Amino acid sequence: MRQPIRLRTIMAALLVGASAIPNLGNELNMLGGFLNFYRVVVALLAVLTLILFRGEIRLSGRRSFLFWMGFLFVWLAYAGVLMVGSPYTDSERGIREIFSLLCGLFCFYILSNLKLTKDEIELVLRFLFFVLTALVLLGFGEIITGKHLSSSMYSDPNQKITWRTNLYTATGFSYNINDYSALITLMLPVTLGRFRIRLRRFFIDPGWFLVASVVLINRINDANICNAAILVGVFAFAIFRAKADRRKQGMLAMAALAVLVFLIIFTIVRGSGSDDLFARVMNLIEKSEEGKGSLQARMLIYRDGFSGAWVSGLLGLGPGGFYRYYSENPSGSNFVDPHSLFLEILSQYGVLIFAGFVLLLIYLFRKMRMLYRGGTNAAVCNWGEMGMIWILVYSVVTFASSSYLQNSFHWTLLALICLMFETAREEKAVAEPEREPGREPEKQSIDLCIYKESRDELS
User: Fold this and answer.
1) d(CA 76, CA 303)
2) d(Cα 335, Cα 173) in Å, to the nearest integer?
3) Over the stretch 287-335, which tens digit does the pLDDT of each residue have?
4) CA 431 to each of CA 376, 424, 426, 427, 434: distance values in angstroms, whole numbers, following the listed order
5) What is the β-pairing status of strands 35-36 and 197-199?
6) DSSP per-residue letters across 258-327
7) N or C: which end of the chain has fewer CB within 10 A?
8) Distance separating alpha carbons of residues 448 and 417, to the nearest angstrom
């Protein structure tokens, strides 16, 4: 059944928007927070997709979707077994995590069935750019006024006053500053070198203004891991473009300029604490040598997290198990959350689920590298470049939040990367004429792939 182009585009855009804005304040926060705006929208879109396609799951030839959906189905089944069989599971947190995994499965199911065209995907990416811009503006509004939404930790009457370090930081639609910074940082690769505005003979790339803005917000929020993730993304972008452009000076100059901007912001702008970045780094190092400070605490929780995984026999503590285990067996860090998605998966769901997750990320990275190196046009090559940067940034930014599994946007992001690869592969198969027997396919260089279209067409 073929659906109208507008409907499937709206459905994909709604999924992206709900993933980026999971809470509409506290206006839609039902069943004690188990159902929020994001989970309700994902469930409704999944039902709508099921109705439109009469229950048919169209995964023929779409291996990346098949792998991820199969993996998430196994993950959910294993989570159910641990929920019943593990003595360490926490019922409330565990149910939230299972909801998150189920929504992740629905995200892949929805996008796998929408069959968006290349132009429709570009429209969804532009909508994502718009949502990121709106979130950044909201963040600056919070920083300037000190006022926050009802879903923010600053509006939580039960929140300890010691956590409220500085009202003039940004939480957006998230609960705390780290979750908000992680979200806008993870959305940022969609801006890199993609949307350019032509002014007579010159091109202006508004994406770099957003990059600088997110760096500034992260600095004010003291979300330095997020800024480290942005540095990784910017350098990856410079390297990819330098490989494709014989005139490497421009890309190297851009990378040097990015470092300079980072240093200026870090030196001049103070975070939510009272020290500038360099003073704080020195303070962290000194405290770490004394066995104190947040850096030392992170090292301790990472060490203890592996111990928790070992206690479970590498089978996993179970959904919400990390929190319960370290509430009953306090870590030397005094943390009860893993502060790393990878450690969260390893400690709670065991080595097999962890290995499957990492292997699928590597699989996606290789598929996006294939698009980057051999796409049929500049837009497709740009998808490959963006997908690789997204996965690199994702691998770093998941260390920012205290607990990451329940965050919503990353599941839609991974499903969107699958959609870009599968759409590009299918359109190439349709456009590519059948080869004569014994004839080798023509090889295509990276620089031709990325630059064979005009600058006007790219913009």
Assistant:
1) 27
2) 24
3) 444 444 566 777 788 888 888 888 888 888 999 888 888 888 877 777 8
4) 9, 10, 9, 6, 9
5) unpaired
6) HHHHHHHHHHHS--SSSS-HHHHHHHHHHHHHTT-HHHHHHHHHHHHHHHHHHHTTTS---TTHHHHHHH
7) N
8) 23
CA separation for the pair 429, 211 (Å, rounded): 36
Q: What is the largest CA-CA distance in the chain?
A: 73
* pLDDT class of 455 with cuts at 50, 70, 90: very low
CA 348, 179, 411, 94 dihedral sign is positive
Element (H, E) at 29: strand 29-30
Q: Chain-centre distance of CA 182, in angstroms? A: 8
**Which of the four pLDDT bands, split at 50, 70 and 90, describes residue 30?**
low
* CA-CA-CA-CA dihedral for 50, 52, 56, 58, to nearest 10: -110
Q: Is the distance from CB of 14 to CB of 48 less than 8 angstroms?
A: no
Prediction pTM value: 0.84
Q: How many CB atoms lie within 10 A of CB 421?
A: 23
DSSP bridge pairs for 202 = 199
Q: What are φ and ψ of residue 403, in 5° steps? A: -140, 130
Length of the chain: 459
Mean pLDDT of the chain: 79
Rounded CA separation 444/449 (Å) = 7
CB 39 within 8 A of CB 103: yes
> For residue 455, what is the DSSP state?
H
